[in-house]
Amino acid sequence: MKRIENVKFVHECGKRKSPLQKSIEKLEEYLSKLKEYNKKVYTCGDGNSYSKTDNDATFMRMKEFAMKNGQLKPSYNVQHGVDVEYISWLTVGPQPTDTTTLIPFLKIIEYSLNFKYSKIVADAGYESKENYSFIEDNNQIAFIKPSNYEISKTRKYNNDIGRIENMDYDSENDLFICQNGKT
């Protein structure tokens, strides 16, 4: 179009740009932004964030220190498996939460050590239905502390009719019935 219409592109101060030059420059700007965004999406991969200084790390909220200002910092999640007080396996990954790390951790232990543990002990951070189902499907026993364990011991929690744990289950109709008789 530049050659056909015989348009000269100008870049000096005081010169007017033609509509064609403005459009092409805007298009080039959009193209460079698209390339930049594609590169960022590729770098991020399956995660939600990445650090510009360490692309493999992800941002996690750090615990507060003396200044009382918990901050997001590029970090790694370190998981270690212990057997008879010895560390038997160790993984490092960019996952910000523990719930998503248990299944891959157990799979790689089983693959690498050629056996699987019959009892899995973990803290409340690993509690999820997916983790329980995976452990049950692999004929293992889960000892994972429920995340609501401490509060579930209170009278207020046990008398709360809105909690599903305090409702009766009707397996025939697959529904829960509260203490007031509502489904």
TrEMBL record:
Protein name in the entry: Transposase
Domain of life of the native organism: Bacteria
GO BP, sorted A to Z: DNA transposition
Regions that span the bilayer: none
Organism, scientific name: Clostridium disporicum
Pfam families named among the record's database cross-references: DDE_Tnp_1
Gene Ontology MF annotations: DNA binding; transposase activity
Alphabetized InterPro entries for the sequence: Transposase_11
Limits of the Transposase IS4-like domain: 50-150
